[in-house]
Each structure stands twice: as structure tokens, then as C-alpha cells.
Amino acid sequence: MKPPITATLTWQGALRFAARTGTTEIMLDSESAAGPSPVQALAMALAGCMAIDVADIVTKGRHPFTALEATIVGQRREDPPRHFVSFTLHFVISGTVPEHVMERAILLSHAKYCSVWHSLRQDIVFDTSFEVRP
User: Fold this and answer.
1) Beta pairing class for 65-76 and 84-95
2) Based on C-alpha coordinates, what's the Rg of the chain?
3) What is the distance in angstroms between the CA of the first residue and the CA of the last residue of the chain?
4) Helix 99-108 crosses helix 38-60 at what angle (to 10 degrees)?
5) CA angle 47, 93, 112 (to 5 degrees)
6) pLDDT at position 112, please?
7) Contact, 111 vs 130, CB < 8 A?
8) Nearest alpha carbon to residue 50 among 19, 84, 90, 15
9) What is the DSSP string of 10-32?
């Protein structure tokens, strides 16, 4: 079993907190000035989790790529609690990666490997797409 993840948030004034886990620290800021808001950080974590999985799967399949970009758009409820109701995640990969490899990598991340996605409400609509560029 993996050890638990521990984070410590230290108030920095206003609605800002220094969030530290291990030796890594980011600033969470309700105003999104000194760092992402917690909700923005959650969307970035989801996109990051899937992007890391996709890069790992494509690399292990020995398909060379020179760039990978993931863009996420999250829609939230209008009324509190303003939780996410849908995500659209689009990947652009540059290199000699067959489309079926990207489809499989995204599917495996979404269905099996992405721990961030599997930690969220499962009634959230989640669409993905990709482009392969030479």
C-alpha cells in the first residue's frame, strides 16, 4: 500500500495559503493572483494526471513524440456548491504517434490509471479529444 499523502496549508493573509507536501510547495489563492485557486488547481491536477499517464503509455509503446499539450475546460454549477459538472480535455501531441495509440492511452488513463479522476464524483461528464501532428 502506498503511504498516505499529507499536505500542510499555512495561511499567508487574505485568502492565500502556502500548500506544502514533502519538499514541494505551491500557493493557493482565492483571487488567482499569487497562484491558482483550489478549484483551478483541481482542474490542473486532473489534466496533469491524465497527461502524465498518456506520456508514459506512449513512451512505453516506443512511439517518439516531441511535444504534448493538454488543455482542460471545466464547467461548474452556477449555485453553491459550485462543483464541476463537466470537463473537456484536449491533447495535442507532436511526433509519429498513431491515432489508435493516443486513443488507447487516453482510454487507459481515464478508465484505469488516473487517480485524480477516480477520486472525483463519477457523475461528472468527461469528454476527451486529441490531435496528432507530425
Assistant:
1) antiparallel
2) 17
3) 41
4) 130
5) 45
6) 97
7) no
8) 90
9) EEEETTEEEEEETTEEEEEETTS
> Averaged over 30-57, what is the pLDDT?
98
Three cell numbers, residue 64:
517518439
pTM above 0.90, yes or no: yes
| Phi-psi label, residue 65: left if phi above 0, alpha if psi -120 to 50, beta otherwise | beta
Q: What is the pLDDT of residues 57-78, one digit of tens each?
A: 999 999 999 999 999 999 999 9
DSSP-derived secondary structure for 81-124: S--EEEEEEEEEEEES--HHHHHHHHHHIIIII-HHHHTS-TTS
